Amino acid sequence: MMRWAVSALRRFRTGVHGIAVLGVLSLAFLGASYAAAQDVPALTKIRQSGVLKVALYRNFAPFSNDGKGIDVDLAEALAAKLGVKMSPLWFDADENMEDDLRNMVWKGHYMGYGPADVMMHAPVDREYMSKVEQVKFFAPYHRERYAVARQLDKLPALDNFDAFEKLNLGVEGDTLAATVMLSADSGRYRNTMKIFKTAAEAVAALKAGEVAAVMAQQGELEGGLKGDVRFAIDLPPHPVLQKRQWALGLAVKSKSDDLAQALQAAINELMADGTLKNIMLRYGVQHRQP
User: Which residue pairs, CB below 8 angstroms and at least 24 apart, start in 122-128?
Assistant: First the structure.
């Protein structure tokens, strides 16, 4: 009886040891598989999956809003160049661009959303690019700037801001335009300024006659008015606002060199053959070379 018990115990120990060894080997195999998966180039992964995941701002007409816009059409054209389908990852702008890039490009949101393969409408600025080492910025495809849209019957010309002592000016809150106008000419225009949550809301107020003019990004103004002859769009008569212009491009993880090269080539082709210009004109926006 005792011999049987000892023999059984030995077999049990041998079995446990075998299981432990198998467990270690399994973990090692899984670790090697994960490492191998991590080493697969970004572009190869995308082509294997057949999908390009693209981060797009929500509620940002005419670039990306309600499932359509310039950046949406451009993203689809880029995916087609890679031979895959485009899958949008919609997101709301966070408190700053660093948060957007962390959530949608290089890490993902803590709620488990993202990251995407590429983000549209990213700033391609040398100084800013050096501050975010986890991200590669490239392929500038449009140049944006501030502008003023005005009702021609109320404001036939815009040589200076004097008219805004009496006429209402709409601006989007928490923007450079709002900051400049609050302090311009010792604050002379504060009482006639109307702050809106978005540029789209400000443009809607302009079309409804609630304000005489709106200062916002030119692309948003052009897309909102779409050539309406009742309005004109000019550069603001202010040196700081005229000087402030920036290029919009793409952003991917810093190590996604192959994907960046492929997307850069695709952007080059879409700009050269007029596709990008036509996409923008479809939404009422004039393409401006970066």
Answer: 122/248, 122/249, 122/250, 122/251, 123/97, 123/246, 123/247, 123/248, 123/249, 124/246, 124/247, 124/248, 124/249, 124/290, 125/246, 125/247, 128/97
pLDDT at 147 over 70: yes
| pTM score | 0.84
H-assigned helices in the chain: 2-39, 42-49, 70-82, 97-101, 126-129, 176-183, 199-207, 218-225, 239-243, 257-272, 275-282
Each residue's pLDDT tens digit, 221-266: 999 999 999 999 999 999 999 999 999 999 999 999 999 999 999 9
Closest by CA position to 140, among listed 32, 236, 22, 267: 267
- Measured CA to CA, the distance from residue 108 to residue 89 in angstroms comes to 11
Residues 6+ apart with CB under 8 A from 283: 62, 69, 70, 223, 226
User: How far, in Å, CA of 211 to CA of 183, rounded?
Assistant: 20
For 42-143+246-282, CATH number out of 3.90.550.10, 3.40.190.10, 2.60.120.600, 3.40.50.720 equals 3.40.190.10
Fold of 145-243: D-Maltodextrin-Binding Protein; domain 2 (3.40.190)
Q: Work out whether strand 135-151 and strand 245-253 pair parallel, antiparallel, or are unpaired.
A: antiparallel
Distance from the Cα of residue 208 to its chain's centroid: 30
Joined together, the tokens standing for residue 147 give: 């502008």
